[in-house]
Tir chaperone protein (CesT) family protein
Amino acid sequence: MTPEKLFQKLQPLFRQLRVPDMQMNPHGYYSLTLETGEVYLEKTELNTLIMIAFLPMPENPGEEMLLELLQANLTPDQESIITIAADKEENKLVLWGGLKEEEIYLEKMMMMLEKINITLAVISRWFNKLLEEDDNKKGELEKTKFQSNQTEQFLNQRK
C-alpha cells in the first residue's frame, strides 16, 4: 500500500475527527490529538495501519497495578483489538492495535480509536489514583516525622 493510498483511506477518518487539513505524509505517519492524549497512525511494511498511544507510568506502579494492566489484555467475550505493553527504558505504557489493509475503513478505525481513547482514560485514572495515594503516604510520613521530631525535642527539653 502506497502512502498516497493510505492517505486516501484515512480521509473519512480525518473528516470525521474534523482535521480535514491533514497533509499527506510521504512515510505514512500521522498523529491525532484525542481528549486523552496523542495517538500515532503509521503504515507498516506489512501493509497494515497501526495506531499507537503512550502514557507515562508512575515511578513505582506496584504489583497490584501491574496485574491490573496485564489483566486488561484479557477480553474473553470479544476479540481484543488493543494490546497493552510497557516500554521499560522510556517508562511508558504503550497501547497499540493494527488493521489490515482491507480493514482500513471508517467504522473500524473509529472503533479502534474509541477503544484506545477509553483504555487511555481508564488507565490514566488508575495512575492518577496511584499518584494521589503516593502523595498521601508521603504526607503522612512527613507528618509522622514532624511529630516524632517534636516529641524528641520535648523529651530532650525535660532532661
The longest strand covers residues 48-56. The chain has a mean pLDDT of 80.
